[in-house]
């Protein structure tokens, strides 16, 4: 997958989360979870964008780790939303799957970057 494809995938992911949040009920808990997952899911793409302009390989790895952290936070938030039965299982399953796939991609990218860093 090329860098611009991954960036677009992350932007689409954030957009899908925003759409999901807009369909949550207007309760205190749902609003809280919605605000939290919007912050974490949009941060994934934003930190990835910063990684693309990293000043060093260490900075690149750090920004990718931030994206990974935000993906893991989004994943847990989705699980909480799922357990509250706010949305259909199908909608949440698609987002959980996409989150899991992005976690795998970023984890692999971090490992590759670290391996390349030690080759120098």
Total domains: 1
Main beta sheet: none
CATH superfamily: 23S rRNA-intervening sequence
Multimeric state: single chain
Cα-atom Rg, whole angstroms?
A: 15 Å
Tally of DSSP β-strands: 0
- The level-1 CATH class: Mainly Alpha
CATH architecture: Up-down Bundle
Q: If you consult CATH, what is the topology?
A: de novo design (two linked rop proteins)
Task: List the uncertain runs.
Answer: none
User: Mean pLDDT across all residues, rounded?
Assistant: 93
- Give the overall shape, derived from the CA principal axes: elongated
Number of helices: 4
Structure described in brief:
The protein is mainly α. The protein has helices spanning 3-22, 28-52, 57-83, 89-119.
